[in-house]
Amino acid sequence: MWLTPRNIIFAVILVMLTVWSAVATGFNLSKLLDSLWRFKEIFELWFPPNWERAGSAFNAVLITMQMAFLGTFLALVIVLPLSFLAAVNMSPNIVICQGMRGIFSFLRSIPDVVIGLILVMAIGPGTFPAVMAILLHNIGVLGKLIAELVEASDKGPQEAVRSMGLGSTMVALYGILPQIMPNVLSHYFYRFEVAIRSSVILGFLGGGGIGQLLFNSFRTFQYTDVTTYVIFVMLLVILVDMIGGWIRQRVI
């Protein structure tokens, strides 16, 4: 059943694309295997972690978490109503629908690092441009994802609300929002995790937080400090994942 002419053509195209990409990018596993001995030297440079930096790492990771939370939560608050305007089944007309989709696509197409660089040039270094970069990029991503959830929502509850003579706002509040909320939370926590990693990268550009400490330690070859900071970032991501899972279980 799987060996149809169409599937064989797809498989051949995928193989050709894989080979083409591997040749263009210099993908070579033997090069990695030949360099394994260097990882032993790197391991010795990075371990044991310098726990004397734990206090500064804790404070910096809190700032990183605040940047990620603010940029993601404000984006969610902004896009929740806007995503209904971008959904085909709820938008008042095609002009507004395509206009909102265009705005989301524009914000999503620019990497948050690039937005951060532009804002740092305009505003100056600090956590504020980093938060704005995360916020703007998340508006683009969450707007698209939530609009798709609205379009794929079950029509039964919507028709039930409409049969009571209620308008589009009530349909959105009582016919759509309750059924998409678990998936909205899943997207939110996923973007929160991504925002934490983005905050670390933006810190390299002067955005503050633990990324700034990582950048300074790399520049001064303090690799045991780097290990401490990386451990704190990993613990933060694990904590966010656990909290997200706990909240989703209670909502679902």
So what's the overall shape?
globular
Helix proportion? over 70%
- The secondary-structure element order is HHHHHHHHHHH
Query: How much strand content do the residues show?
Result: under 5%
Work out the radius of gyration: 23 Å
Question: In terms of per-residue confidence, which ranges show pLDDT below 50 for 5 or more consecutive residues?
Answer: none
Structural class: mainly alpha
Mean pLDDT: 85
What is the count of β-strands?
0
Span between termini:
37 Å
Main sheet characteristics? none
Please count the helical segments. Answer: 11
Summarize the structure.
The chain is mainly α.
How are the SSEs placed, and which strands pair?
Elements: H1 5-25, H2 29-34, H3 36-46, H4 54-86, H5 94-109, H6 112-123, H7 127-151, H8 155-162, H9 168-207, H10 209-219, H11 223-251
Notable features of this structure?
about 250 residues, mainly alpha, globular
Can you give a write-up of this model?
By secondary structure, this protein is an all-alpha fold. It is built from 11 helices and no strands. The model has no long low-confidence stretch (mean pLDDT 85).
